[in-house]
User: What shape does this take?
Amino acid sequence: MTRPITGIRPFLFGTSPPPTGKRPEASCLRVFIKRILPPLLVGLLSAPGAAEVRLPKLISDGMVLQRDAPVKIWGLADAGEAVAVEFNGRHYSTEADDTGHWSVTLKPLPAGGPHTMTIHGENHIELADILVGDVWLASGQSNMEYPISRIAHRFEKEIAAVNNSRIRQFRVPQEYDFNAPRADLESGQWLAASQDNIRDFSAVAYFFAAEIQRKLQVPIGIINSSLGGSPAEAWVSEETLKQFPQHLAEKRKFENPTLIEKIQREDRARIDQWYAIAAQKDAGLAEGEVPWFAPQLDTAEWAQLSLPGYWAEPTEEGDNGIFWFRKNLALPEHLAGTAGLLELGRIVDADETYINGRQVGSTSYLYPRRRYPVPAGLLRAGENTITVRVTNTSGRGGFVKDKPYALTVAGERFDLRGPWHFRRGARMPSLAPQTFVRWKPGGLFNAMLYPLQNYRIKGAIWYQGESNVGRAEEYKKLFPALIRDWRSGWRAQAG
Assistant: This one.
């Protein structure tokens, strides 16, 4: 079921030996207590289980370890605590340093599994179902994040047949931090490409993994660390940002949590007010009047507009505000009451869609495909009314061309392209976009990249660039700097 992969940029990581230096993170509170306070006070204040070995989120059941290379296993324990790791018949031992950090380096292993790993300290941990193969980082913006669920209708048979426990994904939580690199992730787990999980896989990463596995016949692990809309500067370290002073200055600005709170509070208030005023002004929802989604509404005086297309130029109505579109569609008797699927391509920006006065779907922004299930019992023989209420906050509003616009019922497809009735519900000024704080320089590196760099990987696939297209000349320097940054980080930590 593999498909050709285009547009992604893979790059490999080096194989330098792992460093022997200690990591610089701050000491745990319990270490301070143990070394400074009298033993009696320690006994009174220490929490139960304080000395237990703890593992990062990536080191967990179902993980995929990189084959044919030294692999670091790491975690936290009490300062000086002895830690032993057993894996695939080999034994490794170490002692936690003064800050409570410990690590061992597994000898290179061939592809295979599943294996079990045991870790002993004051407690005992057993990790199951571990595979050894190739591990790839999948990162970038929405075209990497885009999940299988969004394209499943295009590959129904292929997706329905997926049941491959030798392809696994770890989904990195979408967080940011401008102040310091984080030692670990907030959450996450390794999940196999099964029917229960496949719809949440990155589509690009899954097809890449399937193609690589078909060629190499080894387990494939994908660490999916991606975020829609993110620019490249969000994914690099502070050290690399020093090469780009304007981005470093912006990072410094957003190190202030009070500023972030203020921006987000003001954005919410401004956006909420815009939508509230738009709703109050919307003639299609005026109190005491027939709502414009009602089937009985008379649209004889409405203008007509051919869809798909953009309304500003042919109607001279302007772009921003609330716009209503209606179309009547006749269905034959034998399809009455049958469930269906309404496809409305892509709409700029948001929509609420009705059939015969009943809402069948809504989408709050422009990018997702509109694919709305029509429940059984709603469609009737003869005339049916489709109504779309569109909210456009800025820019060019309309129905994106070259997308599907149709109602499909019991295998019969009814084309919705062509004339629709059209009327503005509310005229509004352009709404300035919200401040996407999480896209600011360095924040994603600290929260979504740095915590991964102890984990040995084969390489990375990168699908990004649109958010930097307005600064293409800078990107010629920024993207290579990102690659150097990541290679340096993985070599320093994972080896």
Observations:
- The longest strand covers residues 124-140.
